[in-house]
Amino acid sequence: MRRSLVVMVAMVFGVLVGVPATAGASTPYCGITWGSLAKQATPGSTDELYAIRTGRHTCFDRMVLDVHGDVRGYSVRYVDEIGKDGSGELVPVRGGARLEVIAKVPTTPTDAIFLPNGELADVTGYSTFRHVAWAGQFEGQTTIGLGVRARLPLRVLLLDGPGTGSRMVVDVAHRW
């Protein structure tokens, strides 16, 4: 009996030692390695932002800013508060964390980008996004407050199209 117990303990110990303790921790969620630090590019553009869209994906939520022509300059960073362009007046943004999304392009002078409730997008049911709020346009830049569930990894992409336009894409992961 004693010998069986020793053999059993040795087998269990051998199995435990053979399995790395960090096997799951070493693989990033969905392969995402973006991080949560600020992302930016400095050149600006005189082309205009004309639409804001959002979408849900398996591993992240996405916001797309559509621009007539090329969007080249942007700044996306986590902040404690979102200030309205020009006045600095605080913009209420729902969520556990706030992203200040600045596209260095003016906005088409139209109310067409707003939903009837005055918001920029309906993100009800999204995993990460909580609110997309208008924070103004001033001196050739447009600011959007993006409320998210928590401070999570993000990335910014500049993509060509459709046509001669371009898109600024902000992806925020569902988790680390």
Structure description:
Strands 1-4-7-9-8 form a 5-stranded antiparallel sheet, with no helix packed on it. A hairpin with a 5-residue loop joins strand 10 (154-160) and strand 11 (166-173). The longest helix is centred in the first third of the chain and has 17 residues, at 2-18. The chain has one helix spanning 2-18; strands at 39-41, 49-56, 60-67, 74-79, 82-83, 90-91, 97-103, 129-138, 141-148, 154-160, 166-173. The protein is globular and about 45 Å long. It is built from 1 helix and 11 strands. It starts with a helix and ends with a strand. The protein has 176 residues and is mainly beta. InterPro entries: AMIN-like. Residues 49-174 form the AMIN-like domain. This is AMIN-like domain-containing protein.
Secondary structure layout:
Blueprint: H1 2-18, E1 39-41, E2 49-56, E3 60-67, E4 74-79, E5 82-83, E6 90-91, E7 97-103, E8 129-138, E9 141-148, E10 154-160, E11 166-173
Antiparallel strand pairs: 1-4, 2-3, 3-11, 4-7, 5-6, 7-9, 8-9, 10-11
Signal peptide: 1-23
Keywords: Signal
Domain AMIN-like: 49-174
